[in-house]
Amino acid sequence: MIRSTQLQNTDQLFTSDEAKWQALVEKDPAADGKFCYAVKTTGVYCRPSCLSRVPLRKNVAFFDSPEAAEQAGFRACKRCCPTGLTIAAQRATAVAKACRAIEAAEELPTLSSVAKTAGMSPYHFHRVFKATTGLTPKAYAQAHRSKRIREELAKRNTITEAIYGAGFNSNSRFYEKSSETLGMTPSLFRKGGTGVSIRFALAECSLGSVLVAASQKGVCAIFLGDDPEILVQDLQNKFPKANLIGGDRDFEQIVAQVIGLIEAPKTGFNLPLDMRGTAFQQRVWRALREIPAGSTLSYGDLATRIGAPKAVRAVARACATNSIAVAIPCHRVVRNNGALSGYRWGVERKDTLLKREAA
């Protein structure tokens, strides 16, 4: 009901020529499909968001549809293609095509070659790709390569076979980036993380018990709950073959910063994080970290922000699998109507955090 009302309101925004002119001046993509405009001096009609120069008002005529503009003798703009996909859809299609090219490449492709696949200049493609996916083309390629090497290590007989199977053309090139790609050496990864050291400590805060864990790369877990023993068990389940070590006095400073973030969210959190997840999950988690304290987004808004408006359920799953509470603030995501949804650490804690941040 809310969505249909919003659509009606959007339609009503462009009922007058004045409103249509303003949308044209602002190149508002929300007006695409609602009307088109034609320039009398050029004989061309465009969609409202067309990136061409804004014409003089006296030379502009508005039409309800491309068909009406063509019946009046105007021809379609070749830049914005008003009879085809919207510019946003064109970009999404081009980026999707580029993603498939990156995934199919045996070696990491150059920016120029991928941009050519998308039909854009390297600079423009880099900007569009990051705006659509939340990652640079290079970061996307590295994330996909990381996924491939993990899959290959799980099914190949030797590490060398896995390296070549994932598209690396030499052992040395892979080992240079192995810790960055896997978070550990490939041999340790094949053993399920055996020997990887993770420090952890338990503490109490206003939300109950809190467990903080960190690898060499950064904080990898912040768990909230009522029973400390259950939190430790959850950590063991998450890292079943890691070497879990009780934190020392230096580690207490990390725990203190986490508790400070819980009690006073607006103080911020500047410790490095070890975010272990798929490329999509990391896009969601990065977007979560950009939501300021005191603000909220709906799952739909978050999906749109990362350039995947139809992936609302996948975004919700990424929020639910977040293991770094508060520092990756999945509690700032609510339903479309503003109501609280589920929270891995309990809806009451979510409510408390949001009220604390709002204050």
Overall description:
With about 350 residues, the chain is α/β, with parallel strands linked by helices. The chain folds into 4 domains: about 1-75, DNA Methylphosphotriester Repair Domain, CATH 3.40.10; about 85-190, Arc Repressor Mutant, subunit A; about 195-260, Methylated DNA-protein cysteine methyltransferase domain (Double Stranded RNA Binding Domain, 2-Layer Sandwich); about 280-359, Arc Repressor Mutant, subunit A, CATH 1.10.10. Helix content is about 50%, strand content about 10%. The chain has 16 helices and 10 strands. The protein has helices spanning about 1-10, 15-25, 65-70, 85-105, 110-120, 120-135, 135-155, 160-165, 170-180, 185-190, 230-240, 250-265, 280-290, 300-305, 310-320, 345-359; strands at about 35-40, 45, 60-65, 75, 195-205, 210-215, 220-225, 245, 295-300, 335. It has a 4-stranded mixed sheet with strand order 3-1-2-4. A 4-stranded mixed sheet has the order 7-6-5-8, with helices on both faces. The protein is elongated.
List the helices and strands and how they pair.
Blueprint: H1 2-12, H2 17-26, E1 36-39, E2 44-46, E3 60-63, H3 66-71, E4 75-76, H4 87-104, H5 111-118, H6 122-133, H7 137-155, H8 159-165, H9 171-182, H10 186-190, E5 197-205, E6 208-214, E7 219-225, H11 228-238, E8 243-246, H12 249-263, H13 279-289, E9 297-298, H14 299-305, H15 312-320, E10 333-334, H16 347-358
Parallel strand pairs: 2-4, 5-8, 9-10
Antiparallel strand pairs: 1-2, 1-3, 5-6, 6-7
